[in-house]
User: What shape does this take?
Amino acid sequence: MAITYHIKVKKDYAADLIEDLEKVDAIEVFASENESTIEIADWQKETVLARLKEAKTSPETLISWTQAKERIEKLIS
Assistant: This one.
């Protein structure tokens, strides 16, 4: 029987921690009982992993959420 723990992780460490746990097959991702299961295509998973890798190796390319919102607002106005 699996034990479920709820932990808080500082956002600076969360992506690395999840990636490390996935490497050792230590976590299982699942929907809770009140959520529906959503299938994620392999290409979507690969895209996210590639973007995480790029963010880790080239952090200077990242922008803040505020900057992203400003860019989006300019595009739609």
In short: DSSP finds three helices and no strands in the chain. The mean pLDDT is 82. Residues 11-76 form one domain.
